[in-house]
Amino acid sequence: MNVEIPNNVDLDHDQQLRRALATWHPRFLQWWNEVGPDGFDTSTVYLRTAISASADGWANYAYVKMPEYRWGIFLAPPESRKVGFGDHPDADPWQQVPGEFRKELRRIIVTQGDTEPASVEQQRHLGKTAPSLYDLRNLFQVNVEEARHLWAMVYLLHRFFGRDGREEAEELLTRRSGHRDHPRILTAFNAPIRDWLDFYCFAMFTDRDGKYQLESLSESGFDPLSRTTRFMLTEEAHHMFVGETGLQRVVQRTADLMKQSGRADIHALGGIELNIVQKYINLWYSESLDLFGAEDSSNAATYFAAGIKGRYHEHTANMYREHRALEGDYELRVPGGTAERIPLRRAMNAVLRDAYIQDCERGLARWNRELAARGLEQRLALPHASFNRKVGAYAGQSCDVRGNILAAGEFAARRGEWVPTGEDRARNAELMQPVYEPGKIAGWIAPPAKGINGHPPLDFEYVIMS
Ligand code: BYC
Fold first, then answer.
1. How much is the pTM?
2. 325-353: buried (b, 16+ CB within 10 Å) or exposed (e) per residue?
């Protein structure tokens, strides 16, 4: 195995891939140094590194300086399967890119790849305000793994797309989140992540879009894409855990302070008020719904027909009656409009998004249990799917969080009721002072229930500053 780049793609014997990576790898490190986590290059972090794709190989814990992290290339083990859906469900999966789908596959891989470095850029400054060493370490774990996911997509581009793949791999290091002239491809990856509530919401809602997109790509007839994304999903689970439990801990602390004081305005007591938590949820959930694309999408129909991108658990569960999706349609209700019927194949983005919404609702129910357990009446909720949308059937409509259509100008005037204002952010910034001492945690969040890899949740040096 190549010691510098752990892999299970026989890198040592793939001269073409090694040559492509020899140019790209130093450029990647330069990118990491320029826009990766700010200020912690010399710190030692207790990180998990994937060194093989076997059950015991992908979770190796050790102290590592982040720039020395060994980003690797891993594919999940091959499986005996057929394409399984679309126009040619009985075909064998493709080991090379079929010429007729080259453009589509490249576009999907580039779009997926673009989100990974974008998220690292978005989270660049968070280390300076971490509530505990446990949280700081989790942030860095997420960052190095997103960067590894970039490697995974770059592997596909280098290995299967020749010269234009190499050019796309370069571009992935050139675009920048939020940049006016060279932004990242999808909107949510250009939105700033300013504080830790943004981060937990991003990991809960935006990473969860990642889960559903990766799940649908793991069904792909292009076998290397399927195997690459299957391995990425093993890492992705931790990112969503960070988001879901992070928000849960915020809600726990807020609920404790509300119960103790008998009031909702607990900022002066050091907590984040529940209505502010709700606004962050409104913002990141609606941004993340946009990531599924339009409900009625000819691109999605093409991907499905070709066998490039399936539905959630197309193969692995008994979720669908049949796998061609040529019959039936999807009913879309738009506020103020009549129900629209979309032929099923064109509605694949909406079908995937519905599975995602159900998953998000599960998270909400979990946080609400924290409120109920303390005898509080308030509840958190997901906004209506029409709220704050810029992509798809709801784009261009102004709706409130319940889906009521607003008069012209009303959305702009009342925006601050629903999404964080500058004042809300300033109040969070007051609370979010860094806590870097083992055994300690900031006052606005409850301690984690468990530590990492059997270590104590707080009383452990997850990051050693230097
Ligand atoms: N922003 O038919 P439409 C993750 C464009 S997250 C800007 O509606 P389609 C992660 C679209 O490109 C998962 N533009 O959409 C999470 C198209 O442009 P053209 C990332 C958008 O193509 C956290 C036009 O609008 N993975 O991994 O069916 C941390 C009409 O397109 C947006 C993927 O997304 C938008 N939101 O579906 C780290 C998987 N939405 O053709 C990582 C790969 C649409 O008119 N991507 N447009 O120029 C795809 O499968 C699809 O491209 C999409 C959109 C699901 C994104």
1. 0.96
2. beeeebebebbeeeeeebebbbbbbbbbb
